From TrEMBL:
Chain ranges of the RagB/SusD domain: 303-513
Gene Ontology annotations for the cellular component aspect, listed alphabetically: cell outer membrane
Species assigned in the record: Maribellus luteus
Pfam families recorded: SusD-like_3, SusD_RagB
Protein family (similarity comment): Belongs to the SusD family.
SUPFAM superfamilies named among the record's database cross-references: TPR-like
Compartmental location: Cell outer membrane
This protein's name: RagB/SusD family nutrient uptake outer membrane protein
Residue intervals of the SusD-like N-terminal domain: 95-216
Signal peptide coordinates: 1-22
Keywords: Cell outer membrane, Membrane, Signal
InterPro entries xref list: SusD-like_N, SusD_RagB_dom, TPR-like_helical_dom_sf
Amino acid sequence: MKNLRIFLTVIFALGLMLSACELNEDPKFLASDNLFTDEVGANTVLNGVYSSVASYNYYGSNFHHLTNMASGLYNTDRDASLIDIAGLNPPANLNFVTTVWSAVYESISRANNLIAGLAEVELNDAAEKGNILGQAYFIRSLGYFNLVRIYGKCPLITEPVTSENPYNGMSTPEKIYEQIIDDAEMAEQLLPEQGSEVAGRPAKYAANMLLAKVYMQLAGNQTAGSTDNWQRAYDEAIKVYGKYSLVSDFKNLWQETTSNNSKESIFEIQGNVENTLRLLQLWTASTAHSTTWGRFKSNLEVYDRHVSTYPNDPRLKLTFVTEYSNTAGAIQKTYPAFKGRNNKAKSYPYNYKYFMKDLNVANYNTDMNFVVFRYADLLLMLAEIENELHGPDNAYQYVNEVMARARVSGGETSDQPADWSGLTQDQFRTNIMFEYNFELLCEGHDFFNVRRRGYDYFKTNVIDVHNNHPMYDFSKSRDVMYPDNSRIIVMPIPEDELNANPNMSASDQNSGY
């Protein structure tokens, strides 16, 4: 097995060298005809698809760099980022903007090769062929969903790239969403039932959850009376309801020994110490361990909102790190105990979920996976959708499942967060959007959830709340005032792509960049 892993690593590295930002990839990469003669070969190609999804520039690291620092909810120990992306002012030549674009297209290209290659053969196990194809369609759908939400638009490529078609022009968001939906619906048809999938790989309900998210994104800030996307979102989300369940203790989601492939997980990126995801390196304070970076820590308003809403919530200690042991062995206290505004190690609280639990280990390598979709998110989505369609009466049941689990987490029993009741539809709408932060902070959804209801929502609930926080001193280098500029709803199209692709021009750049 180890020899196979080494072989695949070499092949994957070669494939990356053959790739360019204009998506000109060697069409024979892991797609030779002999690899599609049996299920073993086809699964080898599928492993290559997943390898690209878990790569450093995608879910392994830079996807988190880009979406967390541009979310408006985090500060960073990376000084250079304070003046651009963490300050909501990303340039079109920013490394994270460029590498995430290329990495997502790498995964799409590999999925395209797999889909095209399997179309030419018949495998002995038809069900396994369908499962492999379903996973390829799912990964392609997720990739385009990430691209269109991050960049607003992108080229739509569904065939292997060859020397005859190395460049593609920009597609409209409408066309991209059509493809996302088509691919996810195909994945739903082909993926196995829940419980029949290989551990760590998606079952059909992962496709339903993806579709529910797509329709919620399309619904935006519209009411149910003006769009049927809320109903479509419900139709997909309700298929997942009851197929998974919450783990009994929220804390178990964030311990290396209990976190991977739990009964709450709907889809997660697999990691291991040999091909580690950089989760612990990114989230652990650089003053806590010699190999970590402390790239993300919560803004003061994010911490304060959770504390003011649920001061006795057991999840607080399982979401924020306000005290830790530094590399010298001394106790380091952050905000709120520390009030100073220009201290890298103490001015902002860190986050618990991917903070290194054992600071005595040699390095940041971890077996911990990254969960893309989990059941608690599905419950909050159903609550939001039901409220938009019919008001809060039937929506409480979903959010209160999450509340009940939160009250008995981390070895504590609390009266908070209490079950919801007695809210108007508008109050429920406001509260549920914050509940995503309280339950799902640091889990890759922040950038998208604060933007999907439009710029007015983002300005009111992110920019204005941040800029008006009384503790910040914007004359200090660590505190950054956010610009009031609607361009930040999407990232810029990478400058390298516009320069290298003859089918694109400066006019394809997003407005304001």
